[in-house]
Amino acid sequence: MDLISYAELAVMLVNSPDRLAGLEGLRVLLQESGRPRQAARLTRADLDVLRALREELVAVFEAAAGGQEREVVERLNALLRRHPVHPQITRHDDEPWHLHLTEGGRFADQYVVGSVMGLATIVTDLGADRLGLCQSPPCRRAYLDTSSNRSRRYCSERCASRANVAAYRARKKVGQDSGGR
């Protein structure tokens, strides 16, 4: 079972508030996440649950970005208590038997459990500091740092490049200002 892919569901949800405006946006999000089978059975109740989950996950990532490890753990534990994990063995898409975290219930239940369990696994295996918010102002999109040296600071190459260019320009400006005196 690839729990990092489940944690990536949490990141996608945090980074896609616009997709939660309606069911069609949520269906597109699921298509992009490689879960088209689930998109067909979405309901308004699923959308409401995922909107609430998004707010709770944003708080988890904000706590992690603020170095508040205990708060990250408390928030994830609260979510795990509300949404217990029910693993099941399954097979689909010509894959061998493997574990999924839930197969029954509403789609939102599966998404919640997968997202929270994925984040909990990353926190316990790698540390809460592996959950982050992009440091390129004003972005603040969530990311998972799965690098070997804990070096990730940006949600994407685009934001990293933008931040590096801004830093370069700032250094160049300071050099020009001090050189002209």
TrEMBL record:
It holds the Pfam family ABATE. Transmembrane segments: none annotated. Residues 130-172 form the Zinc finger CGNR domain. It comes from the Bacteria. InterPro entries: ABATE, ABATE_dom_sf, Znf_CGNR. Gene3D superfamilies: Jann2411-like domain. PANTHER family: BLL6575 PROTEIN (PTHR35525:SF3). This is CGNR zinc finger domain-containing protein. It comes from Planomonospora corallina.
